[in-house]
């Protein structure tokens, strides 16, 4: 979080309070548990809770350490001045470096000449040795999810100029690689000049295990980076494979050519993959790539021998697209995993684009396609229910976010969409409440219809 209030002298030295003998004395463990409750998973809540943590750090010496641990555990920086201020705080109070495990760069200055990203690895070099999570999120001022009512859109430096893509120093990857503990990287709404810039950012992190890209674009595809090329000829094989520890890959609303390249390069090590359908074709991207290794049919999973779980986010256009279900079948046909159970998870992308009935109808179409596919390619259901072939088994999961009163309605419709799998116990439903104001259906305020009764 923005650390400047915590670094003030009053927060560190001036923490002696006048005793109030009439005040109740609570055990410090109770106070610490209350302070811990100000930690939040959701970004919107964290912005508000930061102010409370600042105040807690100023109460007394007994509260300061716990408040600072929560305040600095996951730091949010909005622009270049915030990065510079944070770096100065760490220089003056180096013990705070041990508290930082997460870092978020967010705001609308990432695509400007004053972007904080290029300077981040230089400003924080050798300081954040325990940094594990990095989120880079460019917010657009017109986004419905990020209104002015809660996000502080500060002024952009007068000398800064807006750019079409992320400005990265040529040696950015070299400095970024110094963060050897980063295992999770989340990138939202960024545009890179070339695909190689995205690939370098990913490949330079030696401990990276989870990559989540949403709304990420590349201005030009360019040739296939050397360490992403096939390794059939050992004499020309790179010494180190691309992102050797990457196991979880989420590519949401990303151009199909970029998806193909990343799945091809990381496939042999992936355990979980998530994509959205219909696949995205960025008409503005310059496609001067390597046609010998790429195709536009879909995603080839033949190299994903360790893949255990495939998540598919379904957009309403998957019905009108006309080819998406054929590409879905082709993708599943190519899945040559050696794991005992191949789990396919289906979800709405996003819920606010659907009514409940609309998504249930879409699941019905997907159910007919998938059940036909499994009948064509699999042996009859095994004793424990799943379809399988040569020791492999399929299992379908439907991911739903809704209120508890809708659980029975969804359960009935999901079973109707996959009747064969439901009878053979090859179907599952994960039902969770909506998170914050997200994941709301178009008819979110409606109540489930009353079941009809016969006399």
TrEMBL record:
Source species, domain of life: Eukaryota
Protein name per UniProt: F-box domain-containing protein
Residue spans of biased composition, Polar residues class: 1-10
Region: Disordered, residue numbers: 1-20
Organism from which the protein derives: Dichomitus squalens
Organism taxonomic ancestry: Eukaryota, Fungi, Dikarya, Basidiomycota, Agaricomycotina
